[in-house]
Automatic annotation (TrEMBL):
Residues 117-304 form the ABC transmembrane type-1 domain. This is Putative glutamine transport system permease protein GlnP. Its main location: membrane. Belongs to the binding-protein-dependent transport system permease family. HisMQ subfamily. It comes from Marinomonas alcarazii.
């Protein structure tokens, strides 16, 4: 049992170690003569500058009585309509050339890094739902009485776990996506779901088999059929035991989602690469990207821990 003084001593040593690590990173930057420019990063997270709306063709500006702006092309193409703006730059009847600023939108908006973070959260959350469904289904098939179901589940698990995720993303996007006409976001979700589902299936299988066989026999002796015994007796116990490994697998899913950038999904990692090329602040960008991934995975881990404590109350 730790005493109060030993706990405070442990916290103090932890802070010292973290201070040494942070200092090491700082002095490493100084050693390579790197100049830190954190101020360059903020517009790529929250941008408060006005956004210019430019003309996409040569033509004439037309402003109707309702204040709607349009550019009538010189060569009879469809007009460019601008429905939302805050400041009008072009006037009615002005000659407009392609690339000219015709209006501006004021106020703040999310930058590329914030938008990439949202894409990462969205693709991870959707993939997590389908991965759990696939994992539970194939996990139950792994312990089913029918040999054909067990063989099918084992084939799925071994094939998916035995091939790299990057290769699976390419196969789903270029082959399956072409056959079924899937967009890149759907292909990314499908690849992540299938990959993570195989690992979830093994976790579910292990959780079910960790429950004593006497539990199933006791449930069947009370008149329950196999499905009722699994739903009301076996699975509730298995879920409690599988929460820690499931949390680790879900965290891996969020980190693995960075690989979907190879099929041009602008997630947090791809947004980071684009921002590096525009801001010339590689260390600041990648440290920020790492912290944002840590915030997302840490939040998920904390949520799983709270759920685990809630379920342990009934033990």
């Amino acid at each position: 049992m730790q005493t109060q003084s030993s706990r405070w001593l442990g916290h103090g040593l932890y802070l010292v170690i973290m201070a040494i690590l942070v200092s090491g990173v700082y002095f490493a930057g100084q050693k390579i003569n790197y100049s830190w420019h954190w101020e360059r990063l903020w517009p790529y997270i929250i941008n408060t500058e006005s956004q210019d709306i430019v003309a996409i063709t040569d033509g004439t500006a037309v402003v109707d009585k309702a204040g709607r702006l349009s550019v009538l092309p010189d060569y009879g193409d469809d007009p460019q309509l601008v429905k939302v703006y805050d400041t009008l730059v072009a006037r009615d009847g002005d000659l407009i050339f392609q690339g000219d600023t015709i209006a501006r939108i004021e106020g703040w908006r999310f930058g590329p890094i914030a938008e990439g973070l949202w894409v990462t959260i969205k693709i991870s959350f959707i993939s997590l739902i389908f991965a759990v469904l696939l994992g539970v289904m194939f996990g139950l098939m792994r312990v089913a009485h029918g040999q054909v179901w067990r063989n099918l589940a084992m084939t799925y698990v071994e094939v998916i776990r035995g091939t790299p995720l990057l290769v699976q993303i390419f196969i789903v996007y270029f082959f399956v996506g072409t056959v079924f006409d899937l967009d890149r976001f759907t292909s990314g979700v499908a690849a992540l779901s299938i990959f993570t589902g195989a690992y979830v299936a093994e976790i579910v299988r292990a959780g079910i088999q960790s429950v004593s066989a006497g539990q199933m026999e006791a449930a069947r002796s009370l008149g329950m059929n196999y499905v009722q015994a699994m739903a009301y007796v076996i699975m509730p116990q298995a879920i409690k035991r599988t929460l820690p490994p499931l949390a680790g697998q879900f965290i891996n899913l969020i980190k693995d989602s960075s690989l979907v950038s190879v099929i041009s999904i602008t997630d947090l990692t791809k947004a980071g690469r684009e921002v590096v090329s525009g801001s010339f602040a590689p260390f600041e960008v990648w440290f920020t990207v790492a912290v944002l991934y840590l915030v997302v995975t840490g939040g998920l881990s904390l949520l799983i821990q709270c759920l685990e404590k809630r379920l342990s109350v009934s033990d």
